[in-house]
Design a protein that fits this description.
Length: 680
Amino acid sequence: MSKKKQSKKQINKGTSKFNFPSYFTDHGLLYGKLFLVSILLYVFTIGHDFTQDDAIVLEANSFTKQGVKGVEGLLKYDTFYGFFNQGGKDNLVAGGRYRPLTPVMFAFGYELFGENPMPYHIMNILWYALTVLLLFIVIKKIFEGNKNIGYVYFVAFVTAMLFAIHPVHTEVVANIKGRDEIMTLFLSLAAAYYVFKGYDTNNKINWLFSGILFFLAMMAKEMAVVFIPIIAVGLFIFRDEKMDFAKKMTNIILHLVPVVIGFVVFMFIRNIVLGSAADTQAVSMELMNNPFLKYVTQSDGSLVLTHYTSSEKFATIFYGLGKYLQLSFIPYQLTHDYYPVAISLKTFSDPMVMLSVLIHLALVVYAIWGVLKNKHLAFGVAVYLVSIFLISNIPVVIGVNIAERFLFMPSVGICFAVAILLYQLSQYFNKGKIITEYAQFKPAFMILAVLFLAGSYKTITRSFDWKDNYTLFERDWSKSRGSAKVLNSRGGSLIDKALEEEFANQPTVKEQMFREAAERLTEAIQIHPLFKGAYLLRGNAYLYLAEYDKAITDYTEALRLDPNFVDAQNNLKQAQELGGTASLEKKGIEAGSTGNFNAALGYFQQLVNQYPNEPKYRFFLGSTFANLGDHQSAIRELKKSEELNKDPNNLNRIYSSLVISYQAIGDTANATIYQAKIQQ
């Protein structure tokens, strides 16, 4: 094989016929525009908190939180190991997860910044902006040698700009954990750049760079593997168009060798780290980890989970693929959660399923034909199809029907295809001729302006939803009403919010939040009756509402589903203790209401002995002493209740009782003091 380096003179030969302003072809200006737009779209996320899966890789990861010292553990174990801190649970999803690159980055970040989320958000934004710039550079590199500079700059810039403003990327950028998606694409693009550069120059150092960068991309996320066929297709379409097919394929394979070596080295390390988990696909029977399960009722009336039929599985998969296309072109009603059963079981009798099948069949046929015919549009279609295939649930079940973050890499193909189509639209209005004047792009730029405004608006407004878990779940639960997971998350976030200090003196508001939490968790249980986590959280809501019998029932059900559920064991014990306490309180109040004050005294004395710092029981005991005529003891207990009380709404009844007891013993001075406090 012999390749000659193309000179700038060769590349630009004949470009004098073009008349484009500098701001259309000046690299500095174009980089600045793309970088600035990418930063400004997400600048409001800088003040956001940790959200969603940030806990797994950063906030609650025992290795990451060791800083630099934790790097060894991050490299030695499954990515989930540092969060669960035990074997087994780190392999909840088929095949295991070995993605150490971004956790290592977070470990270094933790060494410098600790648990302050701001620096991590800033870095996410910067890496995203750099990825947008690199996308522009790589597309220009792909087109190197094309003398139609208007076409090259238009497609490169529009692709990068559409990618920058696409609202479906908010989950990746606004969620710190999304760094893995950003780094995977950034490093894959960098590897592709050096493959093309090596192909054009035959410089072996570029081969070395491509292999190293691709290895790092795989270390960020296994999704990088799709770039091997993507690069191959790119070389086939954009290089040596008239070369003999066999020789062309030989050249392509040769230049992919370093990338393949990077892949093989990664897989070797991955298999050592994960062991058998890397070689087997465990079939999970937990609905939260396998979306292709359904409930069936047995003869005894009990519910069990069973697998979808093959027809149901593939119909549901194609529905999800159709949803991906919809989100790519109409990113409406964005949500972080498509867990079971936000996308319910589908069959091939569903018109939307069949429409998706036909569209994807047409795309596959066009991609194959277009690649063989060196059609540039086919490259965008191929990038999308190859990328989407890996996360389609066809080759391996990935634990969820679809996820917006999974569109991060496939959207490159969509943006590229749209850029090509916009250029062709401009050509159409120019009677099919090559665009030589900037003004001839007017129809395309008018459409791009609308897309820019709409996409930017949606991206910015959606980014606010990622402020924290409470905000995210509040915004998304109604959009994913069929998801047991998001309903469970919403219930849990309401409970956590109600326990915050700002609601300490708002018992009515707290009660409303606990009751709404119980409602959301009930909906989650209705969708997934074997969801032990939802039973635990609903039990917690009932516990805070002092509805102990209901709490005990939920904790018992959680333990029936998992006898080793430690949290349910501990909370059940607490509910039983508090339930017994509630029973004593009820008996004491009933005895006092019937005039049996001696019996009431016994009940309330038990409560005070068990909970000496609970002001309510001190008040009951003091009031009972007063009813028995022992006002000295009543004053002692009432003053202790006043001292312990943290709710100002309860003070007046304590003051009133103290006034009565002080008057009963003839202490008018203190009676007057507490009477004055009541009037305040």
